[in-house]
Amino acid sequence: MSEAPKERKIAAPPINVETQKFWDAAAEGKLLIKKCTDCGEPHFYPRDICPFCFSDKTEWVEASGKGVVYTYSVMRRAPVPYAIGYVTLAEGPTIMSNIVDCDLNSIKCGQSVKLVFKPSDGGPPVPMFTPA
Amino acid sequence: MSHKGKAYIIGIYEHPTRLAKDKTVPMLHAEVTKGVLDDAGLSKKDIDGFFCAAGDTPGLGPLSMIDYLGLNLKHMDSTDTGGSSYTLHIGHMAEAIAGGKCSVALLTLAGRPRAEGMATGTAPRAPAVPMPESGFEFPYAPATANMYAMCASRHMYEYGTTSEQLAWVKVAASHHAQHNPHAMLRDVVTVEEVVNSPMIADPLHRLDCCVISDGGGAVLMANEEVARSLSKHPNVRVIGNGEASKNQMGGKVDLTYSGARWSGPRAFEMAGVKPSDMKYASIYDSFTITVVMQLEDLGFCEKGQGGRFVSDGNLISGVGKLPFNTDGGGLCNNHPSNRGGITKVIEAVRQLRGEAHPAVQVKNCDLALAHGTGGSLGTRHGSSTVIMERA
After folding, report:
1. How far is CA B93 from each of CA B44, B78, B126, rounded to the nearest angstrom?
2. Which residues in chain B are closer than 8 Å to A8, comparing Cβ atoms?
3. Residue B329 contacts by C-beta under 8 Å, 6 or more apart in sequence?
4. Do B311 and B165 form a contact (C-beta atoms < 8 A)?
5. CATH match of A20-131 with 1.10.3720.10
6. Which of A36, A37, A82, A112 has a CA 20 to 30 Å removed from the CA of B121?
7. If we measure between CA atoms, which residue out of B360, B349, B254, B377 comes closest to residue B8?
8. Dihedral of the CA atoms B262, B274, B319, B307 (nearest 10)?
């Protein structure tokens, strides 16, 4: 049975001095992650100080937007059912997101996905993923 | 200095209510305190240590509740790791008692999410103050059920775990709950009934989820001198505990295991026992998948074999190899304040005392484990393991 996706109101993300650049880039259709120039590890969600080696030498890097569904779940008990998931980016980090613009019953772990942005309710657009 | 065997559980009390429309949360805290003092045979003035989780205790940390209950204390701790707070606090209480910080320690839990009509598992909970991760999670509507469901999806993908295997956890809990007059759900259910119940968050069905209930519980612990002076119940003492937290690890997300992978071995090492020695286990059952993952991580079976381990009634008392949650657990009996940790400790102590319902009492139950997972298995959670013996 196919299930046509409907529109869900997306909560605006709270923004602070540590994450302003991420959301400024999102408004331009770019997904940024943080990478440590000392230990070389990318991380997510973005912090000023690397959560692995605790160096303060972290830089913003644009992600390709390519990824694979690590896991997912379709919430049925909601005004509009939606799919939440974790997507493993080509650059390494696995990030929480929604899988959108697809038949919710067709989503699979291991599936290739690509970046899209969806408007939030009074905030910047939010990165999400759709089947590649 | 190890606190192994130096602190005793001298009182337990589970509030009988499951719907507390005519009570406040502080009233419930007071009633479980009264209940646990009666169980132990002590009075309020004997209490010199208070332990609670900030999240279910109205007021700034423990302060309002200490005032309301009229306690005079030497020691207090309001660490909150969600539903695992109470198994965690058993360890903190044991450490405080062994260290001489207090001699009689009270732990309480109370709440009324059912009376308040809270959509516990299916509605995202917006924090009053944004958390560091909020901007990168809240827009995606993480609730409770879909976070645990994501763990189940990955477990199925990696290990071939099935919905029918998960259902066996609920079936076992229901076999136990039929004997508990206070249990919210007392009907025995079948695997078919579980997998045919409405889908909440794929792959978790309604009957894969714990109940939403009001009420609470309390535990009283003391040093050996106090415990030996009491005669109402067999003595139970804490011989091992461990705690851990697990999270997204900076983006190196791995939902196939829980913090029990770390808290379990810490507890077993202190106690000097192994999983196969356990006569009974209380395993946190917010969802069926929670049980499967914790059993693997605690070492009751190999990683990935949890689905097979729980099948065919292996968790049913008198039937399987590992009797679990003989009160019916969170899946059938009680999950007060959306936090099941204290009822895990309480039923383990009933088993060790020989005071569980005769239909589910494990014969010669002299060694038991209680384990909690609190917060969200899909993002960040606290994990705590307690091992107790009949002294």
Report:
1. 17, 11, 32
2. 141
3. B173, B176, B177, B210, B282, B283, B285, B340, B343
4. yes
5. no
6. A112
7. B349
8. 30
ipTM confidence? 0.96
SS3 label, residue A27 = helix
Instruction: Give the whole-angstrom CA distance, residue B264 versus residue B93.
Output: 18
Residue to substitute from B253, B256, B377, interface A, most A β-carbons within 10 A: B253
- How far apart CA B335 and CA B372 sit, in angstroms, is 12
Taking only residues 9 to 68 of chain A, the set having a beta carbon closer than 8 angstroms to any beta carbon of chain B reads: 10-16, 18-19, 22-23, 33, 41-45, 47, 51-52
- CB-based contact A94 B251, cutoff 8 Å: yes
Chains A and B form CB pairs within 8 A to the count of 126
**pLDDT tens, per residue, chain B with 391 residues:** 689 999 999 999 999 999 999 999 999 999 999 999 999 999 999 999 999 999 999 999 999 999 999 999 999 999 999 999 999 999 999 999 999 999 999 999 999 999 999 988 898 887 778 899 999 999 999 999 999 999 999 999 999 999 999 999 999 999 999 999 999 999 999 999 999 999 999 999 999 999 999 999 999 999 999 999 999 999 999 999 999 999 999 999 999 999 999 999 999 999 999 999 999 999 999 999 999 999 999 999 999 999 999 999 999 999 999 999 999 999 999 999 999 999 999 999 999 999 999 999 999 999 999 999 999 999 999 999 999 999 9
CA atoms within 13 A on the CB side of B178: 12
Contacts of A61 (CB under 8 A, 6+ apart): A32, A33, A34, A35, A42, A91
Site from B120, B140, B247 to mutate, A interface, most A CB atoms within 10 angstroms: B140
Q: What type of residue is B290?
A: T
Q: CB count, 10 Å around CB of B289?
A: 29
* Residue A7: Cβ-neighbour burial (10 angstroms; 0-12, 13-18, 19+): exposed
Cβ contacts (< 8 Å) between A44 and chain B: which residues? Answer: 136, 250-251
Interface of A with B in 81-110 (CB under 8 A): 82, 84-86, 88, 92-98, 109-110
Cα distance between residue A98 and residue A80, in whole Å = 13
Place of tokens 């038949």: A103
Cβ neighbours for B269, distance < 8 A, ≥ 6 positions apart: B240, B242
Phi, psi dihedrals of residue B191, rounded to the nearest 5°? -55, -45
| Cβ <8 Å between B202 and A19 | no
- In DSSP notation, B288-349 reads HHHHHHHHHHHTSS-TT-HHHHHGGGTTSTTTSSS-B-TT-IIIII--BTT--HHHHHHHHH
Q: Which residues of B28-67 are buried (b: 16+ CB within 10 A; e: fewer)?
A: bbbbbbebbbebbebeeebbbbbbbbebbbeeebbeebbe
